[in-house]
From TrEMBL:
Pfam families: DUF1761
Transmembrane helix is among the record's keywords: yes
InterPro entries given in the database record: DUF1761
Protein name in UniProt: DUF1761 domain-containing protein
Keyword set, alphabetical order: Membrane, Transmembrane, Transmembrane helix
TM helices/strands, residue ranges: 12-34, 55-78, 84-107, 119-136
Amino acid sequence: MPMEVELHLNLTAALAAAFAAFVLGGIWYGPLFGKRWQGYIGLSDEDLASKGHPAVIMGLAFILTLMQAIILSAIVPAESTVEIAVIYALVIGVSFVATAFGVNYLFSRHPKALFGIDAGFNILQFALMGAIIGAFG
């Protein structure tokens, strides 16, 4: 018996979720963990200022975050509660994103603390996006 999958897409919720996640990223990789993150990946303030155009980097980062939010919006069932949407988001953030970081960081020999910063952000980012998408239900 074929299985039917119905995707529900809420672009307004996805846009709001992407914006909120982008703000969270600014706080996470700014005042909260910015200097530690820079140290772990070996980027100086001068490197950040001179390598890549900040507007291009921010613009592309927002587009990628929006793509994540759109896909999450499509996966979360219509009429989900905030709690159900957050569960969907956490499954993605923990099971797919954080584990993918983990595998990459094991082979690249990055510090465990860097994994904590990057994976922690992505888990929290997905939970936030899920909460917003669920609130738009």
